[in-house]
Write a structure and sequence with these properties.
The protein is α+β, with helices and mostly antiparallel strands. The chain has helices spanning about 45-55, 85-95, 95-100, 105, 125-135, 160-170, 205-215, 220-225, 240-250, 280-295, 330-335, 340-345, 360-365; strands at about 15, 20-25, 30-40, 65-70, 75-85, 110-120, 140, 150-155, 185-195, 195-205, 250-260, 270-275, 305-310, 315-320, 370-375. The strands form 3 sheets. Strands 2, 8, 9, 10, 11, 12, 13, 14 and 15 form a 9-stranded antiparallel beta sheet that branches. A 4-stranded antiparallel beta sheet has the order 4-5-3-6.
Length: about 375
């Protein structure tokens, strides 16, 4: 086995900030692994559905290659791996309505799926692979996380029902935090902005196991049933396909997490909603990530940690701040230091160059989401 190296004129690796434990914006190649459990007798149907999907995915920008593998021990177990130029084009595709429709034939013949996504940090191979890798960027060092997985769901409710929905979502007993010996719910934060609901969760262990655990809790099931009449997107939780499509569309993945490494037990948690202009959601999330990373070393920065969630043109930033959201420089709390850039990428204001010196504070007020509930699990 030969370890590859890049020509001296093309650095193989890039340094990552130790303050950033998660980011999709570092330019590294992405490896996606999909574990599939196929229904008994449906192997040929699954293969035909995959071949149709494969021909469609080949034309998606950023897609490099994919492989389909079948277990040598259990013919019902399959593995799909794909390589992408970087994470953003994959996320743009997997979170699109096009993808929801594209994978529908696959789900009719499978029992279960599990998706895993990895940045390529190191690779080995022969001379040909080494020459090719010289044109690809790899990280100089691994990211160091805190063992917590961050994820969110978002959906909209019918206008006029916001107060009823907020009461339903705040007035129920929290689910059992312990999932199993290795997985635990750490925190659930729920916010609303107009008729949009965002539920952010923090999990230590297995995210998928935690989501399934929560869905089985009778208290949570009762709440989900209670808000059904108010949802803009109809769903039937007793119909597996209807529920799958709803939660696929509701997924709001975390794309960046940065911490200033300052602890404050009295820090306040806030959520900010940034309505991106059509087609500019990923660009807006990238800008917020860059500015959060740059501000992490600023002692004036009131933001102790920030997680950015993005799907299509929905961008949400969850922040822990000291001394309240309105203390200190509002531009640092907002994460947009240039009001003109805010006008270019969001629908907060029109496209003209802002001239109002108090604009940033007004934008912060517009972005602020209403807290419904924020629950920490007891340590255990």
């Amino acid at each position: 086995m030969t370890t590859t190296s890049a020509p001296s004129s093309r650095p193989l690796t890039r340094q990552v900030s130790h303050r950033v434990s998660q980011s999709v914006f570092d330019g590294s190649r992405l490896r996606v692994v999909l574990l599939v459990d196929v229904n008994d007798g449906a192997q040929q149907q699954f293969l035909e559905a995959y071949e149709q999907l494969c021909s469609q995915v080949a034309s998606v920008p950023g897609h490099v290659s994919d492989q389909l593998c079948q277990s040598i021990e259990n013919p019902s177990q399959w593995l799909i791996t794909s390589e992408w130029e970087s994470a953003p084009p994959f996320l743009a595709w997997v979170n699109s309505e096009e993808h929801v429709q594209m994978v529908e034939p696959l789900h009719s013949c499978v029992r279960d799926t599990r998706s895993l996504r990895f940045h390529v940090v190191r690779e080995t191979g022969g001379p040909a692979a080494g020459a090719e890798s010289g044109r690809r960027r790899l990280q100089a060092s691994p990211r160091i996380g805190d063992g917590v997985i961050r994820h969110a769901l978002t959906f909209t409710v019918k206008p006029g029902s916001e107060q009823k929905v907020a009461k339903i979502l705040s007035d129920y007993a929290p689910p059992e935090p312990k999932v199993d010996d290795t997985t635990r719910l750490m925190r659930t934060s729920l916010y609303m902005h107009g008729n949009r609901v965002v539920r952010a969760i923090e999990v230590r262990g297995d995210l998928l196991a935690a989501l399934r655990h929560v869905a089985r809790q009778p208290e949570v099931r009762a709440v989900e049933e209670a808000i059904n009449p108010y949802l803009e997107q109809e769903r039937d939780l007793d119909d597996q396909e209807s529920a799958r499509v709803f939660f696929t569309r509701a997924a709001l993945p975390a794309v960046h997490h940065v911490t200033a490494e300052q602890e404050d037990p009295d820090a306040e948690r806030h959520a900010l909603y940034y309505p991106a202009r059509p087609g500019r959601g990923m660009e807006l999330a990238r800008l917020l990530a860059q500015q959060d990373e740059a501000a992490a070393d600023d002692p004036r920065n009131p933001v102790l940690c920030s997680t950015i969630f993005q799907r299509d043109d929905v961008v949400v930033r969850l922040i822990d701040v000291r001394d309240g959201l309105d203390a200190g420089d509002p531009a640092l709390s907002l994460g947009l230091l240039d009001p003109a850039k805010a006008a270019e990428l969001t629908t907060f204001v029109d496209g003209s160059t802002p001239r109002d010196g108090d604009l940033t504070r007004r934008l912060l007020k517009l972005a602020r989401m209403d807290l419904v509930t924020d629950r920490r699990s007891p340590r255990g």
